[in-house]
Amino acid sequence: MQVSYALKYPINKIIARVATRKHTSFYQEDKSCDQVLLNFAKLDFNTLQRMHKRELCDITRWWKELNLANELPFAKDRVVELYFWSLGVYFEPQYNVARNILTKVLCFASITDDIYDTYGTLHELTLLTNAIEK
């Protein structure tokens, strides 16, 4: 089971904290498992999960207060996906401010991408591109 998991999800392709849950379950099944260490790993995972849920709740509230879903109906609502992306970059707990900022920047980059992909005319996009380049 562990070998097939490792082959399917190589360590350089996974988010460390997401993999922790799977590794904990593997360790729990091990006969030589240290219960104190296992309990600490579970406590650490649950504490971080609560922290990430709070962060995501705050970012989601910020996104809803912007009301961009109503103002720009063509834009995709990708807040959770983009937060998860920033979690892959800044997974350590002390980087909560960096995760917050990166997620917000990615939200605006996503909106800009949606403008180019689905909304703007060629003329409007040329003007927007020129304005951004200046």
UniProtKB/TrEMBL annotation:
Keywords of the record: Metal-binding
Domain Terpene synthase metal-binding span(s) in chain numbering: 64-134
Coiled coil spans: none
Matches recorded under Gene3D superfamilies: Farnesyl Diphosphate Synthase, Terpene synthase, N-terminal domain
Molecular functions per Gene Ontology: magnesium ion binding; terpene synthase activity
InterPro entries reported for this sequence: Isoprenoid_synthase_dom_sf, Terpene_synth_N_sf, Terpene_synthase-like, Terpene_synthase_metal-bd
Superkingdom as given in the UniProt entry: Eukaryota
GO BP terms, alphabetized: terpenoid biosynthetic process
Protein name, entry field: Sesquiterpene synthase
Source species: Solanum tuberosum (Potato)
